Amino acid sequence: MRNLSTQRYVVANWKMNLPPLPIVDFIASLPSVPSSDSTKLILAPPFPFINEVITAASNAASSIEVAGQNCSEKENGPLTGEVSASMLMRAGATYVIIGHSERRALFREGDDIVAEKIAACWRSGPVPILCIGEPIEVRDEGDVRGYLEKQIQSSVPSSEAGSLLVAYEPVWAIGSGRNASASMIAEAVGWIRSSLDKDAGRGRSPVIYGGSVTAENVDELQSDGGIDGFLVGGASLDPKALSVIYHSTAGRTLPDSGIARFRQK
Q1: Where are the alpha helices (DSSP H) in 49-205?
Q2: Rounded to whole angstroms, how far apart are CA atoms 114 and 153?
Q3: Which residues 6+ apart lie within 8 Å of 96 measured at CB?
């Protein structure tokens, strides 16, 4: 089981998109991440581009890691179009995003399937990044804590153990231009950690936030200090914006230009 608790994370989820720059130029435009850095930068490209990202990062002498955007709960079989956790690991992906709200809504992946996928990751090696979060009607009804606790209890296998990274992404904030306030995030993250801590054998699982994260709001979102990083969508396709988010998460300023100067452009 990998010890994830001492690090911070920025996970760039490209979804079914590629950045406007060629991948080699995109990587060259990002901060060079040393292997000793306590803040991990993880890129999640579409499956066919995993190797290209790994090669570009290696050539840039950067310890950027790679995540798959999804995996099958099965190891192999007649499942056209599916990719197993072990195949992703073999391709060089060390993380896998599991249970993203788009997978849950568009592909009808319930908590039972999510739990099977996490178990498959634990058997094969890549660290699952479990996505959980409430729809707007649950928040309006005031039962966010109960909803998140149920998602965790139903999505995390109790019969197996492994390292886990949790992404809190309120469904109503994803791609909407709306984002939760720092106090809302801190409150939800506290509930998530409390629920995770009930499994004493798991250790501390880092909790990151996803949902309309941008270079302009990243400082505000983490101002309460309750999160361990970010899951970034649209902004992750812009190397300048991603650099701002990474440096802010790591508690640093951008070399030369600085974060404030970039934001004024």
Answers
A1: 50-59, 85-91, 101-106, 111-124, 136-141, 144-155, 182-196
A2: 11
A3: 67, 68, 69, 70, 71, 85, 88, 117, 121, 126, 127, 128, 129
Residue range of the domain that includes 250: 8-263
CA distance 54 to 130: 23
- Is 116 designated active site? no
Residue 103 resides in a domain: yes
Q: How many separate domains does the chain show?
A: 1
Tokens of 148: 């998140």
Q: Which of 102, 109, 134, 169 is catalytic?
A: 169
Residue 243 counted as domain residue: yes
pLDDT in tens, 92-123: 999 999 999 999 999 999 999 999 999 999 99
Instruction: Tell me the pLDDT tens digit for each residue of 197-233.
Output: 775 455 579 999 999 899 999 999 999 878 999 999 9
User: Given a cut of 60, is residue 139 above it in pLDDT?
Assistant: yes
247 is catalytic: no
What are the distances in angstroms from CA 201 to CA 3, 113, 147, 198?
12, 23, 23, 9
Among the options 65, 73, 100, 109, which is catalytic?
100
E strands present in 213-263:
229-232
pTM of the predicted model over 0.85: yes
Q: Which amino acid is at 66?
A: V
